[in-house]
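Progress note, sequence design subtask.
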């Protein structure tokens, strides 16, 4: 027995050393001696510290930090400092090693970074509000971007190895990843990481569709490769004449983006023509980059006819996340549209690795500026004391993570970058907050426009002010940028504070009479009525919408404290106002299906099925604890699921169907296709009734110019049966799409 254990330990030792050697191989050969020594020291410390720990999968824990370090080096392109931190990223959190130990061994900078990583971890495990977590992530981001990059590598490795985690945990991690990390990866220009995040999330939340598309991609690979070869052959011949080294790749788009296309355009996989993009990557010195890219463009468009409106020049105007490339779409053989991306090796590296790669090219000014500008705007938002976490998150996601941008000019000709959709008022605030507060109108290209006027690329703007002008609530509807919103909000808040003074005084008197402590009581009231701040509470009292007698109905006095009689918490999904199960969800089943919730029969719970996604037995589901309507059962791919899991993770419970009996459920399908004769209705009903032996509850169809759209309600006993029906209907010759809807 002892011998066996020894053999096993030996094996593991080899495994760990092997992983470490592979990590070292990803590092540059000319690495400084000191760096090499420190990496070795970090590795040894981590091995020792984690020696008693295992991952959920059973393998030694240390393999995780080694893998994270390898992702940092190989896929994100980070240097020795980050590698050391990655190796140490879990030791303070999980072992006896302290931050002081790390500071002594590796110095202050590394200790600070490891501390940042530990804090991010704590934010995640303690179920605190995600908006707050996100703020933490961003604070570390402005402190040292590398901390967030290492965290991304950590998250990526965890996502790749999520298999041995319980399902609910997988779903929560996936929700957080798609909510925070994927957008952030996008913003930092880590294109490859972002794409993998989204694919891995989809694999968890929608495994069947994921497998389906993955398989179809595999099946069509040959045809695609042939097409790409045929398409590129004439290009290669001409590009060779340029005497600039180049390579061409033709890669399929990600599964997630293909799925988005299928959903968005309601088409079949087979009908998506742009499953791949061709990329021409040229190896040119900095001073020739732009020129050779345009030469290549000219070659491509000599051979194939371009679609003029699809030309995108992100070389002259790089995206805010640093992306540079020349895109065009041309008409290829067999009348297929093909997207061609033209860029240099440097641009390609930045496109794939984003922020990390940009350090490598920091002598190129433009790159530096785009990130600095962005980080400055993040810093500015973080420092704004008026923005609470939820508002912050909303603003941040809306305009610093996703948006495209436009370029406009001041009267002096200085360029300003604003997110697409920005208005004249946004521009005023972007120059100076005083200019914003007193803005009365704006001249765009010498024409006076209202403040809410949407700006276009290249506009020249001049702000006209009036010293009596004041921001009002309506202004919030006229701006899109976080800066303007937050400035207007803080002006409004100041106004509310002023008006709420009377409310504050009334409440103070009442609390004095009751002889309860002021601060804790007000805290409790704010929480009880779910106000964002004291100011809102005072304001509502001042406006008479919340009266003092009404407030104290919900409380009794105990000594110097107020105590709640009952707590009212509104549900986040506002599908029902009265809190009772809706008629629809009651009547949809002739026999309420039985459930297991957290491993127990849910019969004694008050549960009902959410009307936002109408789950069917067999669908992957979860239970959500509402405050007023018992348990709500949602589908895992419910449109509200991410929000619930991310913001109210502690209310989410695991739910499963109990062996499905003979009861029937209503499922709705929307069928579209080509109507080339009078027989469509007959064909569909025959398939459903005679072939599939399903009952039709309702059926409607409308057609126009050879195209039909039908809606059919079926009685099915479970999701498998429904999926079979969908497959069968899809296989009909005239049918182009079949979608479940509620
Ligand atoms: Mn970790």
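Output:
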């Amino acid at each position: 027995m002892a011998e066996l254990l020894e053999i096993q330990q030996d094996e593991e030792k080899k495994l760990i050393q092997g992983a470490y050697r592979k990590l070292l191989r990803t590092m540059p050969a000319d690495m400084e001696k000191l760096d090499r020594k420190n990496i070795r020291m970090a590795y040894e410390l981590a091995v020792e510290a984690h020696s008693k720990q295992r991952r959920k999968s059973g393998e030694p824990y240390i393999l995780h930090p080694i893998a994270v370090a390898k992702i940092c080096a190989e896929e994100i392109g980070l240097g020795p400092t980050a590698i050391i931190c990655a190796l140490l990223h879990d030791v303070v959190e999980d072992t006896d090693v302290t931050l002081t130990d790390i500071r002594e061994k590796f110095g202050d900078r590394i200790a600070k970074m490891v501390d940042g990583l530990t804090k991010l971890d704590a934010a995640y495990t303690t179920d605190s509000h995600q908006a707050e977590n996100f703020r933490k992530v961003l604070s570390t981001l402005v402190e040292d971007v590398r901390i967030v990059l290492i965290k991304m590598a950590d998250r990526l490795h965890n996502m790749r190895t999520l298999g041995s985690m319980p399902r609910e945990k997988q779903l929560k991690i996936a929700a957080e990843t798609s909510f925070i990390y994927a957008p952030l990866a996008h913003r930092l220009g880590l294109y490859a990481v972002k794409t993998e995040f989204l694919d891995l999330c989809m694999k968890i939340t929608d495994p069947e569709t994921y497998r389906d598309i993955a398989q179809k991609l595999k099946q069509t690979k040959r045809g695609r490769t042939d097409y790409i070869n045929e398409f590129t052959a004439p290009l290669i011949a001409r590009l060779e004449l340029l005497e600039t080294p180049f390579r061409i790749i033709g890669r399929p788009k990600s599964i997630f983006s293909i799925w988005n296309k299928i959903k968005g355009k309601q088409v079949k996989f087979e009908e998506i023509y742009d499953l791949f993009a061709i990329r021409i990557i040229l190896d040119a010195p900095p001073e020739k980059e732009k020129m050779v890219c345009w030469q290549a463009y000219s070659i491509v468009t000599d051979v194939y006819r371009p679609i003029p409106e699809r030309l995108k020049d992100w070389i002259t105007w790089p995206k805010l996340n640093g992306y540079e490339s020349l895109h065009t779409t041309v008409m290829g053989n067999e009348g297929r549209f093909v997207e061609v991306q033209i860029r240099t090796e440097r641009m390609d590296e930045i496109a794939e690795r984003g922020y990390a790669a940009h350090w490598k090219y920091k002598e190129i000014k433009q790159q530096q500026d785009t990130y600095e500008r962005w980080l400055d705007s993040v810093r500015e938002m973080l420092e704004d004391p008026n923005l609470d976490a939820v508002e912050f998150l909303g603003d941040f996601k809306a305009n610093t993570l996703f948006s495209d941008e436009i370029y406009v000019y001041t009267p002096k000709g200085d360029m300003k970058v604003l997110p697409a959709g920005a208005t004249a008022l946004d521009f005023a605030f972007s120059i100076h907050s005083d200019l914003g507060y007193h803005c009365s109108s704006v001249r765009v290209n010498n024409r006076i426009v209202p403040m809410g006027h949407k700006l276009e690329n290249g506009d020249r703007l001049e702000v006209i002010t009036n010293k009596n002008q004041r921001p009002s609530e309506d202004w919030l509807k006229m701006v899109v940028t976080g800066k303007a919103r937050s400035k207007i909000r803080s002006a409004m808040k100041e106004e509310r504070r002023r008006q709420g003074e009377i409310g504050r005084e009334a409440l103070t008197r009442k609390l004095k009479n009751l002889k309860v402590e002021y601060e804790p009581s007000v805290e409790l009231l704010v929480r009880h009525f779910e106000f964002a701040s004291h100011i809102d509470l005072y304001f509502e009292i001042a406006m008479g919408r919340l009266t003092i007698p009404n407030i104290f109905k919900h409380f009794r006095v105990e000594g110097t404290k107020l105590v709640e009689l009952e707590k009212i918490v509104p549900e986040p999904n506002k599908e029902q106002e009265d809190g009772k199960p809706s008629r629809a969800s009651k009547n949809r089943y002739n026999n309420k299906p039985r459930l297991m919730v957290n491993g127990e029969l849910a019969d004694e719970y008050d549960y009902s099925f959410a009307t936002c996604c109408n789950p069917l037995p067999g669908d992957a589901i979860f239970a959500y604890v509402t405050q007023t309507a018992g348990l709500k059962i949602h589908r895992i791919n419910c449109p509200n699921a991410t929000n619930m899991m991310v913001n109210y993770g502690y209310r989410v419970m695991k739910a499963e169907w109990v062996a499905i009996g003979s009861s029937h459920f209503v499922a709705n399908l929307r069928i579209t296709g080509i109507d080339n004769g009078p027989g469509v209705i007959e064909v569909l009903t025959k398939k459903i009734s005679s072939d599939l032996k399903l009952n039709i509850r309702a059926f409607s169809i409308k057609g126009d110019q050879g195209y039909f759209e039908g809606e059919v309600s079926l009685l099915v006993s479970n999701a498998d049966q429904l999926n079979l029906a969908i497959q069968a209907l899809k296989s009909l010759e005239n049918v182009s799409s079949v979608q479940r809807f509620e």
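The domain at 18-164 is CATH 1.10.3210.10 (Hypothetical protein af1432). Work on this subtask will continue into the next period as scheduled.
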